[in-house]
Amino acid sequence: MQDRKETDVADAEFDDLGCSTRAIHQPAHLSRNHDVPASKKSSGADNDHQSATDMLEKTLARLEGAQAGLVLSSGLAAFNMLAVSLLSKGEEMIVHRPVCTETAALMENTLSRAGIIMIPVDLSLPANIHRSVTPKTRLIYFETPTNPLGDILDIAAIAKCGRSWGVKIAVDSTFASPALQRPIEHGADIVLQSLTKYINGHGDTLGGALLGENAIVQKLRETSLRSPQAAISPQASFLILRGLRTLALRMDRHSSAAHAIALTLEAHPAVAWVRYPYLQSHPNYSIARRQMSGGSGMLAFGLRAGRDGACAMIARLRLISSGVNLAEVGSLICHSARLTSARHLSLARSGLCDPLGDDVIRCSVGLEDAEDLIEDILQALDFG
Ligand code: PLP
User: Fold this and answer.
1) Beta bridge partners of 123
2) Dihedrals φ, ψ of 77, to 5°?
């Protein structure tokens, strides 16, 4: 009992620390647990896995302000686990339309075959929930910021509408990471993170996480124990824990460079439009400022020269590489034609996804010097 009190005090003090400190250190009682003498440490692979994965789950839960966490093999595996754990055949999940990531493909190809029904709803108007909820609705799921266009949805407003019907809210916060946005503080029940992206941050491993209250995570964990293919590898947990230590530092730098690039693009005569949450021209700018503490490193834009212009510009870039991944140390750029072939083909009939304009360019701004990235973009825009 005495011990428990000490632990609670340690936890409370720990929760007052900043994001970087909490990503690097453990609260006193966790450190004590891990600080076992070398002779007593097990060298078995299972225990190594347990300690890295366990530590990752606890650290992520603390960063999100959640009671508990479950780490899985990828973001997609996390979404699948969420759906199959919390919904049964014939039950409904409201999803924000359009959904444009691989999660949409999973929804269409796998979950609908399992009898789980996706109800696409435009959640940019949260009141739409009132018209879409039925007695079979179990979950409302959405990304914010969305991939690839960076729409910002109002977590607090959606959570309020969902709660009035007793429906749980799950937010994919991958584009922000807990360094910039903590959906639980805004009323969400569950946070999904693709650890493959900013949390690992180095583009060298896959992982996914679900964070929420103890009872929900326990339910998710029970289902995951019956799905061994969804387990994360010990090496992946180790790498992600290492990447996580610099998350706040990286997100700060990703955000400041992306903001500077967004402003440069917006002022350029060859650019038709730019979408970045921290630009005043962003339609959801005020929600972004309220809900996020930085704009993150993802931006989308289109050129006046449309699709041909996008191809010409990307071909001229010297520093920024072409690639569909995101949230890596190096900057990556991707034309919607590639996103489309990867994702939308299988979704054409689903009603979940709108076709992307063929001019859409998505840029994942890395950790290079912002001036060098801006110079690269300016020379690449000079193709006329
Ligand atoms: N969530 C978002 C917002 C994504 O962009 C992606 C992948 O692009 C995923 C989830 C899926 O994550 P993973 O690649 O780890 O399966």
Assistant:
1) none
2) -65, -35
- Counting from 1 in the atom list of ligand 1, the atom nearest the Cα of 326 is 8
Would you say 197 and 168 are in contact if contact means Cβ atoms under 8 Å apart? no
Residues 313 and 374 in one domain: yes
In ligand 1, which atom is closest to the CA atom of 74?
A: 15
Do 162 and 187 share a domain, yes or no?
A: yes
Tell me the pLDDT band of 36, cut-offs 50, 70 and 90. very low
200 close to 207: Cβ distance less than 8 angstroms: yes
276 and 373 housed in the same domain: yes
**C-alpha of residue 300 to centroid of ligand 1, in Å:** 17
Q: Are residues 56 and 191 in the same domain?
A: yes
From the CA of 53, how far away is ligand 1's center (Å)? 19
In angstroms, the Cα distances linking 44 to 36, 57, 70, 229 are 15, 20, 22, 21
Structural domain of residue 272, as residue ranges? 247-380
Q: What's the total number of domains in the chain?
A: 3
pTM of structure: 0.91
pLDDT computed for residue 336 by the predictor: 80
pLDDT beyond 70 at 121? yes
For 108, other C-beta atoms within 10 Å of its C-beta total 20
Confirm or reject: Cβ of 145 under 6 Å from ligand 1: no
Q: Ligand 1, from 95, 142, 147: best to mutate by most atoms within 8 Å of Cβ?
A: 147
196 and 50 share one domain? yes
CATH of the domain at 51: 3.40.640.10
Question: Using H for helix, E for strand and C for coil, what is the string for 23-90?
Answer: HHCCCHHHHHHHCCCHHHCCCCHHHHHHHHHHHHHHHHHHHHCCCEEEEECCHHHHHHHHHHHHCCCC
> Band of the pLDDT at 101, cuts 50, 70, 90?
low
Among 194, 205, 237, name the best residue to mutate to test ligand 1's pocket (greatest count of ligand atoms within 8 A of Cβ). 194
Same domain, residue pair 194 and 265: no
The 10 Å Cβ neighbour count of residue 14 is: 17
